[in-house]
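Students often ask what a 'structure token' actually looks like in practice. Rather than answer in the abstract, let us consider NADP-binding protein, a protein of 313 residues. Its sequence is given first.
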Amino acid sequence: MFNKKRFVFDNIPDLSGKVAIVTGGNNGIGFITVRELVRKNAHVFIASRSKEKGEAAIEIIKNETKKDAVEFLQLDLKSLNSVKSAAETFLAKNLPLHILINNAGIMATAFETTQDGIQDQFGVNHLGHFLFTNLLLPTIKASAPSRIVNISSVAHQNTPPAGIEFDKLNDPNAHTAFIRYGQSKLANILFTIELDKRLSGTNVYCNSVHPGVIKSDLWNGFHSSWGSWIKPFLNVLKLFMITPEEGALTQLYCATSPEIEEKNHCAKYFVPYGELGKTTAQAKDEELAKQLWDYSEKLVKEKLGDDVFSTDG
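Now compare that with the structural description of the same chain:
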């Protein structure tokens, strides 16, 4: 399905002195990503909703790597207040931040809204990470050279002709669950493009990733959207999917490989395993990327106040 692995765990350089955050790091490719960063001596924070699951993952990682530099950071991407609190909790530690991997996500779930009244796939996959990244950005820039990795998907191809229909995002009847997912994954790429523009000259390398079609809990969303009849079909599909270990490789490449800096890879879209991928015309639309940024910023300010992005103090 994909090219020969040009990047494997052994290619990850020593990360002593590096600090990383991985959202959704308690399971799936996020867990593998955290484990391998810790194995190579990074200090890693698992940013996820469930403290119980996060701490269980931490114990497994400590046992497997024989290293202790892994911590839990409470983060519920369905709540912008929780996102703000998570960023503030990390910033209060006065640590650098060299690697941010926006890995967490939900896929093709039945229509719901977040605690802030935002359609959940857009809210979790894009808006929560938009806020989290922006609040951490001063520290990421101060820690340069540093990396931001946004996990997108080949599903960014499955969108309306306009790419993102902002006026219909919260309409439960406007799009199928998979089109809602596609728009959120397109948003990940567009966010990367606009963020990179704003990071020009900062030595922060921001890229997006399609990790592959992976056997993981991400597929659970299909059950809520289509019911139990889909399960046998998914079980067959999973025979052709890659493992979480394989799925973690491309984001680990973007987060750690010296090639990213050597080749000045910025605002690129990578596919397994560390290869440059092709995107849709909508995913190259710089005007749409700017529109998404402005829309996201306005929405966050509506929910949390105009001073939410202030870096004072």
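One point worth highlighting: The first helix runs from residue 28 to 39. Ask yourself how you might have guessed this from the sequence alone, and why that guess would often be unreliable.
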